[in-house]
Every structure is written in C-alpha cells, then in structure tokens.
C-alpha cells in the first residue's frame, strides 16, 4: 500500500487525524507532573460535579415536574450521565491526554471537528468559572447579615454612567483559585479534596438531620393525596432532563489524564466512582427533603433551608449556606482546572500559539495558560452577569459528550488504518526513501493514484498464488465491512438528529411531526441493526493503550448516549445556539487563518499501521 502524503489545504485538512501518542506531548520539558491517584481523581470529579445547584434544584423540580418522585428523576439522570461516563472511561484509558474530548475527536474523527470541540470547551470553562464565581458572593453575604451586607471592598457596585454591576468578590475568588492552580496539581487537588469533603459533610448533615425529622413527623411529604407521581411519567422524565445538568463535571477527571500515575486503571475507576457518589448523595437528599415537606409547599429558591426552618431548625440555614459556598468554590476549581490543559494540548498540535504549551519546570503545570485563562474568567466575573449565558456552557458540554460517544463507534468499527509520521520519525523508521519515491511518482504531492488499476493489478497477481488470493479476498471483505460500518454510523447520527429535531418541534402540525419522526427512525434503526450484526474491527484491541476499560453494550450504549445528548442540545433554546454559533464562527476564522496552516500535521505522511508495526519489529530485531 502506498504512502499517503498529507496536505494542508482544502477539505483534507479537516479530516487529518493525529496519532494516539503525540510526539510534541512527549517532548522534553513539556511533561506534566504525574501526581494523581484514584482518591484525588474522585475528589476532583465529585468536587467539579456537585455545585450549589442541588441546593436549589430539589425545590424547583419537585414543585414543577417530579413531586415525591424526585429521587427517581435523579436516578434516571444519573443513568443517562453514566452512558457518557462509560464512553469517557474507555477513551481516557486508551488515549490518556490532557485534551479530553478534543484529543479523542482529533484521533478518531478529524482536525475540523476536534477544533470546534476544543474551541467550544474553552468557552464552556471560561463562562462556567465566571458564572460560578458570580454565585458565591450572594451566598457569602448571608453570613454578614443579608444580601447587601458584604464589606465594601467585596460588595457589588453599579458603575456610574454604565449599566454594569461589578463583583469584586467574584473576581478575587477566581484570581485566588488561579494562583492555587499555578502552584501544582498536587497542591490544588489537595485543597479541592478538603473542600469537597467539607461539602459532602454538609450534605450528610442534611440527610441525617432530615431523616431524624422525617421519622418524627411520619414522612408527611409522602402522604399527599396526589400520590407518588402527581405529574405522571412525563413529569419524572422532564425532571430528569432538568437535573441532568447537575451531573456535568465528571469530564474534568479526563482532562487530568497526563497527570495520573496509572491512567489505564485509575481514570475509569475515578470517573465511575465520582459519578456514583454524586448520584447517591443527590438521591438521598431528594428522598429526605420531599419526605419532610410536601412538594407543593417547597420554597423554590431555598428549599432545604426553608424545610428545616419549618421544623424549628432556623440555624440550619447557615449550615446549608456554607455547603452552597463550599460547593461553588469546589466547582470553580473544577471549571478553571481543565481549560489551560485544553489550550496546552491544542497548542502542542500547532492549532494555537506555542505560548500556551509551555509547562513550568518547577510546578510542572501550564502556568502561562492558567494565568491567561484565570485573568479572562476574572474579568468576565467582575464586569458581566454571565448567568444569562449559562445555556452556552451546556452546549459545549453536551457537544463534547456527543462527540465522545461517536468516537467510541468509530474506534470500535472503523479505527484509523494509518498513522501520521513526521520527517524525523520517517527517517528513524527508514521510510524516507519510500516517501521520496512516492513523491517522484506523484509530482503534485497528492494521493491521486488510480484505485481501479491497483485493484486489477492485485487481482492479477493473486491469481498466480492461492495464498495471495486468500489474502486479497480477506482484504476486500475487510474494506467492504469498513465501508458498511462507516455508512451505518453516519446513518445512525443523521437519524438521531432528524428524530430528535422532529420530536422537539412541537410547534409543527401533527402530520409533518410524524413524518419527521418516521424518517429519523428509518435512518436510525436500520443503521443500529447493521452495527449489531457486523463484526467490530480487530484493530480496536491494539488501538492506543491496551488493557484498559472497555465500554460495554456497544453499539447500543453509545447510540443511546448520542440520542439523549442530541435531544438535550436541541432543547437548550435558540438564544443559546445563536450565541454559541457566533463563538464557533469566530473559531472557524481563527482556524482558517491560523491553525489550518500551522497544524503539526501539515507536512506529515500517513503510513499504514501494519507497515509501522513491521518496521518497529524489524528495527527492534536488528538492534
């Protein structure tokens, strides 16, 4: 098989795929410190996931959607989040990199999709950190006597002549967390672990004290006349869609992959344990709160504090508020931790300036990227009320979840057959002469060989040798299987998009809505059936780091994951999509005028995996 010479222009640049282990990632002086174990990963995952939202969500969702069945909504949402967690766990153990979803999509799908995912993740973490910081000061003010009782230097102020309310407390907290992250991953993870444990203790207090009250009053919240499902199954499912966002944050664990001592073992366990702990705590809090106060009598703004106050425990408000502050601080750390690592990975790949790829020799963290990200998030937190932009954060997360699930399907059925080699790697493996001959045969430097002539030549040679004929037939069958699998994956993704868009367009008349759902089903179901019937690629076992976690129930689990995340994406609202669209358009321009021509894959040659394996084994034998 001939070498494919990579190009830097046109559609091909969008489809360039990088190897699992990037040379730049292993360059001297660019290594991150391997300091994290499974306990620290669990602390990072739980701390990044459990935010202050749980202290508010229980009231809103119980009153408007789930009623006493609130715990069931949390369970369903937790199972839906676990589908994405399974996909992340396999890719994180196979391809451990600080790039997370950006890195996975670059390996499995291509540079164009990877750039958009990385660009949207940058927006997600910046806005997420700013929004979280803005939420801390109102909760903190309660300890000083009320909403406007913070010291003057930390209180919010409205700038004269401008319709802007600045928040010095939020900006100061962002800068403080940024300084902590610059000290090193060991130090920052230790602090986050302490804050997370304290937050978990507050939640345990809510559970234990709530159970004490519940047994005293006979769990009156479950004795309502409307029954356990006052809004029916649809209400429980609507509640699940709302509380699903309370599980976002476990993907932060994947962004620390290069800093984990044993990523193949610890990353899947850390992701799974963090999500399980969050789900258990959420469900226990939900069971207790709806049991001590009827769902229709809950305060939508402060459901937990008001629930204790109704039973004579007004002092519990300070405990619950401290839990909210701790949760927000931990989530702030989880929002600011991944962003410089995403920027670092994109800079390693040449898509961003090399400034972001610098790793401090003493702390072994990307200090420059951390400082820039922290300053941007602090400026936003100081000047802007970013709560209205919260939907944009969800778009980035759900896009990443969706692409990670698609990457699992590609990895299992059509993993990359070729790896890009730089000139230094070609020289070390003795492939430079073959590369020069390929360019000599192809003066345009492009892979424009006549495929039909090659097939005819192989077939002619195969007729002379039965062994060659058998190998030729096996190769043709494998090519056919890959084409069918690729077409089926495309059909599934298109079917999911059409089905979810049609089901969400409730403003359409009944007939067009049904036609859209039928078309989506016709594309989705046959594609899924085909993927179930055909064999998965043998190369999946040797792709990346072997011996790690394997996502179960493929292709069902990734397809359901794609379906859930796409449905949530479509229902985020037009305003969020317009704002994200503007941001992505800016990203497209940055890629066209900077990243496309400076990518580390511009001048590489794509070599079949079998050929590189053969050269490695032969060079190892000769040495």
TrEMBL record:
PANTHER family: AMINO ACID PERMEASE FAMILY PROTEIN, EXPRESSED, INNER MEMBRANE TRANSPORTER YGJI-RELATED. The chain crosses the membrane at residues 36-58, 70-89, 101-122, 164-185, 197-219, 231-250, 271-295, 315-337, 365-383, 389-414, 484-504, 510-534, 546-570, 576-594. GO terms for cellular component: membrane. It is found in: Membrane. One of its GO terms (biological process) is amino acid transport. This is Cationic amino acid transporter C-terminal domain-containing protein. One of its GO terms (molecular function) is amino acid transmembrane transporter activity. It is a multi-pass membrane protein. The keyword DNA-binding does not apply. The gene is LOC123095602. Belongs to the amino acid-polyamine-organocation (APC) superfamily. Cationic amino acid transporter (CAT) (TC 2.A.3.3) family. It comes from Triticum aestivum (Wheat).
